């Protein structure tokens, strides 16, 4: 049986062009970018060129891009780095209850270091209200971190409006744009953000490489020490094949974000039409402010682990929430924030996320298999 991979919000397959660039880099770009001989200079040039492309994809200056090991590290650097550097101005941080664990756990760590964190609630649409940010702000607030697109339900957050709200406030504004990258044209000036996280493996690039945009005027404390790389903000010999692969992945979507968005929207419309033929389901998250890449569906009355296991046997690869918690089968903190812990929708939600190679036919086939599985499990339960 052929398999249907519908978990692109967890990670995407490497694009063949990326893979080709990386294999060349693995053998040819072995020089250390810090070495001054020709081999080192060749590698330095490759890093600089990649930095220019990533900067362009965010409407940023090259100097403001810090390569990291991925989204998790970029989020940690943004949050912990800002908090430690700005603590003389206050010790209050605002984030939302639906952030990725990279943000939530960084905030939890800071709480153990004497910072106070406000975790903004969301309503059933899964969107952070701009008023809640306004109400939570104090003179002590030094950082606001709100994600651009939620990775579990796909809801789009009002980043530009929050940027506008914070324009005259001391708080540094960070957004985790991991799930928006590649499908939303990003411009750090329009968004008025100071820090922004992206990662390569969600856009058909390699795992283990990402970047943090940092506005030049904003100071952060590094998390690592031991070298001059990345202007001392993230020392360590650069992950050259990763950086080269990241650049190639970005070049493939640069300027094409809206076309990709339209492509995914078309697939999602077909998917939703088909999935609506299954009885007793809900599609979770705001109807309009939602990513075309993610569809979160609750199959009421079913048990997530049983559904996931059976879908896996049927060759359908999906997730019950964020990849980090999927293995542990704890119910999603995002759905808990939206509906409450015991709500049937929280207990039976599956995330389908779409990818570049998907077709309309794949949408119809995946729902056909899901429908059979759900109906079989429901019959067995009765
Ligand atoms: C919204 C969001 N932020 C951060 C991350 C972490 O990125 P990485 O896997 O590159 O560490 C992910 C990945 O699941 C994500 O979806």
TrEMBL record:
Q: Which cofactor does it need?
A: pyridoxal 5'-phosphate
Could you tell me the EC number(s) of this protein? 2.8.1.7
* Alphabetical keyword list: Iron, Iron-sulfur, Metal-binding, Pyridoxal phosphate, Transferase
Using the record's annotation, list all stretches that form the Aminotransferase class V domain: 5-361
Q: Give the top-level enzyme category.
A: transferase
Top-level taxon in the UniProt lineage: Bacteria
Among Pfam families, the record links this protein to:
Aminotran_5
Coiled coil regions in record: none
Which GO MF terms does the UniProt record name? Answer: cysteine desulfurase activity; iron-sulfur cluster binding; metal ion binding
Enzymatic reactions: (sulfur carrier)-H + L-cysteine = (sulfur carrier)-SH + L-alanine
- Family (UniProt): Belongs to the class-V pyridoxal-phosphate-dependent aminotransferase family. NifS/IscS subfamily.
PANTHER family this protein is in? CYSTEINE DESULFURASE, CYSTEINE DESULFURYLASE FAMILY MEMBER
Name by which UniProt lists this protein: cysteine desulfurase
Q: Which organism is it from?
A: Halolactibacillus halophilus
């Amino acid at each position: 049986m052929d398999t249907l991979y519908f978990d692109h919000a967890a990670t995407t397959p490497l694009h063949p062009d990326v893979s080709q660039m990386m294999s060349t880099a693995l053998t040819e770009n072995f020089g250390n970018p810090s070495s001054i001989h020709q081999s080192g200079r060749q590698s330095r040039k490759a890093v600089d060129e990649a930095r220019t492309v990533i900067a362009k994809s965010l409407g940023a200056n090259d100097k403001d891009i810090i390569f990291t090991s991925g989204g998790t590290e970029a989020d940690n650097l943004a949050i912990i780095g800002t908090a430690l550097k700005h603590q003389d101005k206050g010790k209050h941080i605002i984030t939302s209850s639906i952030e990725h664990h990279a943000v939530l756990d960084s905030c939890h760590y800071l709480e153990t270091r004497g910072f106070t964190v406000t975790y903004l609630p969301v309503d059933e649409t899964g969107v952070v209200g701009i008023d809640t940010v306004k109400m939570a702000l104090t003179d002590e607030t030094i950082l606001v971190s709100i994600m651009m697109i939620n990775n579990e339900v796909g809801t789009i957050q009002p980043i530009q409006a929050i940027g506008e709200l914070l324009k005259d406030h001391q708080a540094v504004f960070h957004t985790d744009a991991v799930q928006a990258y590649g499908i939303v044209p990003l411009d750090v000036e329009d968004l008025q953000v100071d820090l922004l996280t992206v990662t390569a493996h969600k856009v058909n690039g390699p795992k283990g490489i990402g970047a943090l945009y940092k506005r030049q005027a904003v100071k952060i404390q590094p998390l690592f020490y031991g070298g001059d790389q990345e202007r001392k903000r993230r020392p360590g010999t650069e992950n050259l094949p990763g950086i080269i692969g990241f650049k190639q992945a970005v070049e493939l979507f640069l300027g094409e974000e809206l076309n990709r968005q339209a492509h995914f929207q078309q697939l999602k419309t077909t998917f939703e039409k088909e999935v609506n033929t299954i009885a007793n389901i809900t599609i979770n998250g705001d109807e309009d402010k939602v990513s075309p890449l993610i569809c979160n569906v609750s199959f009421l009355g079913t048990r997530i682990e049983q559904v996931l296991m059976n879908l896996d046997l049927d060759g359908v690869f999906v997730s019950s929430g964020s990849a980090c918690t999927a293995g542990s089968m704890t119910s999603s903190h995002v759905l808990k924030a939206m509906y409450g812990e015991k709500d049937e929708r929280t207990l039976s939600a599956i995330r389908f996320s779409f990818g570049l190679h998907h077709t309309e036919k794949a949408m119809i086939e995946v729902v056909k298999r899901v429908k059979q599985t759900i109906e079989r499990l429901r019959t067995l339960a009765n």
